[in-house]
Amino acid sequence: GLLTRLQTSAPTIRTLSSNSFSQNIPSCLWKLGRLNHVAIAVPDLEKAQSLYKDVLGAQVSETVALPEHGVYTVFVELGNTKLELLHPLGEESPIASFLQKNKTGGMHHICIEVDDIKAAMTELKKKKIRILSEEPKIGAHGKPVIFLHPKDCHGVLVELEQA
Protein backbone atom coordinates (compact mmCIF):
# COMPACT_ATOMS: atom_id res chain seq x y z
CA GLY A 1 0.00 0.00 0.00
CA LEU A 2 0.89 3.60 0.68
CA LEU A 3 3.61 2.78 3.21
CA THR A 4 5.44 0.61 0.68
CA ARG A 5 5.33 3.38 -1.93
CA LEU A 6 6.65 5.94 0.60
CA GLN A 7 9.48 3.67 1.62
CA THR A 8 10.58 2.95 -1.95
CA SER A 9 10.23 6.52 -3.22
CA ALA A 10 12.00 8.21 -0.31
CA PRO A 11 15.12 10.06 -1.45
CA THR A 12 18.47 8.75 -0.37
CA ILE A 13 20.27 11.15 1.96
CA ARG A 14 24.01 11.17 1.68
CA THR A 15 26.26 12.58 4.30
CA LEU A 16 29.70 13.92 3.57
CA SER A 17 32.51 12.89 5.79
CA SER A 18 34.66 15.76 6.95
CA ASN A 19 37.60 14.29 5.00
CA SER A 20 35.87 14.22 1.61
CA PHE A 21 34.43 17.72 2.14
CA SER A 22 37.69 19.38 3.14
CA GLN A 23 39.52 17.87 0.15
CA ASN A 24 37.30 19.93 -2.17
CA ILE A 25 38.09 23.24 -0.47
CA PRO A 26 41.31 24.89 -1.59
CA SER A 27 43.59 25.44 1.35
CA CYS A 28 44.30 29.05 2.14
CA LEU A 29 47.58 30.30 3.56
CA TRP A 30 45.81 33.17 5.34
CA LYS A 31 42.50 33.79 7.09
CA LEU A 32 40.12 36.70 7.42
CA GLY A 33 39.63 37.86 10.98
CA ARG A 34 37.23 40.27 12.60
CA LEU A 35 35.83 43.53 11.28
CA ASN A 36 38.27 46.11 12.62
CA HIS A 37 36.42 49.27 11.61
CA VAL A 38 34.09 51.03 9.21
CA ALA A 39 35.57 54.27 7.87
CA ILE A 40 33.42 57.33 7.28
CA ALA A 41 34.63 60.36 5.33
CA VAL A 42 33.44 63.58 7.00
CA PRO A 43 33.57 67.17 5.72
CA ASP A 44 33.65 68.60 9.27
CA LEU A 45 35.70 66.51 11.70
CA GLU A 46 34.81 68.53 14.81
CA LYS A 47 31.07 68.23 14.13
CA ALA A 48 31.41 64.51 13.53
CA GLN A 49 33.44 64.05 16.74
CA SER A 50 30.79 65.99 18.64
CA LEU A 51 27.96 63.86 17.22
CA TYR A 52 29.51 60.61 18.40
CA LYS A 53 30.87 61.94 21.71
CA ASP A 54 28.35 64.52 22.92
CA VAL A 55 25.12 63.35 21.28
CA LEU A 56 25.56 59.57 21.13
CA GLY A 57 27.85 59.21 24.17
CA ALA A 58 30.60 57.16 22.54
CA GLN A 59 34.25 57.12 23.53
CA VAL A 60 36.08 59.16 20.88
CA SER A 61 39.86 59.35 20.36
CA GLU A 62 41.96 62.42 19.76
CA THR A 63 42.60 63.48 16.17
CA VAL A 64 45.69 61.88 14.62
CA ALA A 65 47.32 63.14 11.42
CA LEU A 66 48.52 60.48 8.98
CA PRO A 67 50.33 62.47 6.28
CA GLU A 68 51.45 59.34 4.39
CA HIS A 69 47.76 58.51 3.84
CA GLY A 70 46.61 62.12 3.42
CA VAL A 71 44.10 61.95 6.27
CA TYR A 72 43.24 63.00 9.77
CA THR A 73 41.69 60.12 11.71
CA VAL A 74 39.51 59.86 14.78
CA PHE A 75 38.35 56.51 16.17
CA VAL A 76 34.96 55.96 17.79
CA GLU A 77 34.84 52.90 20.07
CA LEU A 78 31.72 50.75 19.67
CA GLY A 79 32.23 47.70 21.86
CA ASN A 80 32.36 45.14 19.02
CA THR A 81 34.21 47.32 16.47
CA LYS A 82 35.15 50.93 15.72
CA LEU A 83 34.23 53.73 13.39
CA GLU A 84 37.09 55.64 11.80
CA LEU A 85 36.25 59.23 10.97
CA LEU A 86 38.38 60.45 8.05
CA HIS A 87 39.05 64.05 7.06
CA PRO A 88 41.37 65.28 4.27
CA LEU A 89 44.97 66.21 5.04
CA GLY A 90 46.63 68.00 2.13
CA GLU A 91 45.65 68.67 -1.46
CA GLU A 92 46.36 65.12 -2.68
CA SER A 93 44.18 63.46 -0.05
CA PRO A 94 42.01 60.62 -1.38
CA ILE A 95 39.38 61.79 1.11
CA ALA A 96 39.29 65.25 -0.50
CA SER A 97 38.35 63.71 -3.86
CA PHE A 98 35.79 61.44 -2.15
CA LEU A 99 34.19 64.48 -0.47
CA GLN A 100 34.07 66.37 -3.77
CA LYS A 101 31.78 63.62 -5.07
CA ASN A 102 29.96 63.13 -1.73
CA LYS A 103 29.57 66.61 -0.21
CA THR A 104 28.01 65.43 3.07
CA GLY A 105 30.45 62.56 3.51
CA GLY A 106 29.64 58.87 3.77
CA MET A 107 31.03 55.38 4.17
CA HIS A 108 34.52 55.24 2.67
CA HIS A 109 35.76 51.70 3.39
CA ILE A 110 35.61 48.68 5.65
CA CYS A 111 38.67 47.22 7.36
CA ILE A 112 39.01 43.49 8.02
CA GLU A 113 41.90 41.92 9.91
CA VAL A 114 43.99 39.15 8.33
CA ASP A 115 46.47 36.83 10.00
CA ASP A 116 49.10 37.06 7.20
CA ILE A 117 48.94 40.14 4.98
CA LYS A 118 51.81 39.07 2.69
CA ALA A 119 50.20 35.68 2.00
CA ALA A 120 46.89 37.45 1.43
CA MET A 121 48.52 39.76 -1.13
CA THR A 122 50.10 36.87 -3.02
CA GLU A 123 46.89 34.86 -3.16
CA LEU A 124 44.65 37.81 -4.01
CA LYS A 125 46.93 38.78 -6.92
CA LYS A 126 46.68 35.20 -8.24
CA LYS A 127 42.89 35.56 -8.04
CA LYS A 128 43.06 38.81 -10.09
CA ILE A 129 42.02 41.07 -7.20
CA ARG A 130 43.71 44.43 -7.67
CA ILE A 131 45.65 45.83 -4.71
CA LEU A 132 46.05 49.60 -4.67
CA SER A 133 49.71 49.56 -3.59
CA GLU A 134 52.73 47.38 -4.35
CA GLU A 135 53.57 46.96 -0.66
CA PRO A 136 51.61 47.34 2.59
CA LYS A 137 51.69 50.75 4.24
CA ILE A 138 51.58 51.36 7.97
CA GLY A 139 48.01 52.23 8.93
CA ALA A 140 46.38 54.19 11.72
CA HIS A 141 46.91 51.34 14.22
CA GLY A 142 50.64 51.10 13.44
CA LYS A 143 50.14 47.84 11.52
CA PRO A 144 50.60 46.99 7.82
CA VAL A 145 47.54 47.60 5.64
CA ILE A 146 46.54 47.22 2.00
CA PHE A 147 43.47 48.33 0.07
CA LEU A 148 41.61 46.21 -2.47
CA HIS A 149 40.11 47.83 -5.55
CA PRO A 150 36.38 48.46 -5.06
CA LYS A 151 35.57 47.25 -8.59
CA ASP A 152 36.90 43.83 -7.59
CA CYS A 153 34.95 43.84 -4.27
CA HIS A 154 31.38 44.60 -5.39
CA GLY A 155 31.75 48.36 -5.06
CA VAL A 156 33.29 48.36 -1.59
CA LEU A 157 36.79 49.64 -0.85
CA VAL A 158 38.22 46.94 1.43
CA GLU A 159 41.18 47.54 3.71
CA LEU A 160 43.01 44.49 5.03
CA GLU A 161 45.04 44.98 8.20
CA GLN A 162 47.60 42.63 9.70
CA ALA A 163 46.11 41.34 12.96
Word description of this protein:
By secondary structure, the chain is α+β, with helices and mostly antiparallel strands. It is 26% helix and 31% strand. The chain is built from five helices and nine strands. It is globular and about 50 Å long. Residues 14-18 have low confidence and may be disordered.
What form results from the Cα inertia axes? globular
Written as H for each helix and E for each strand, in order along the chain, the element string is HHEHEEEEHEHEEE
Structural class: alpha+beta
Please provide the count of β strands: 9
Q: What is the radius of gyration computed over CA atoms, rounded to a whole number of angstroms?
A: 23 Å
Could you give a short account of the major beta sheet?
9 strands, mixed
Q: Report, as a whole number of angstroms, the end-to-end distance.
A: 63 Å
Number of helices: 5
- The parts where pLDDT drops under 50 for at least 5 residues are 14-18
Question: Per DSSP, what share of the residues sits in E-state strands of 2 or more residues?
Answer: 25-35%
Average the pLDDT over all residues and give the rounded result: 89
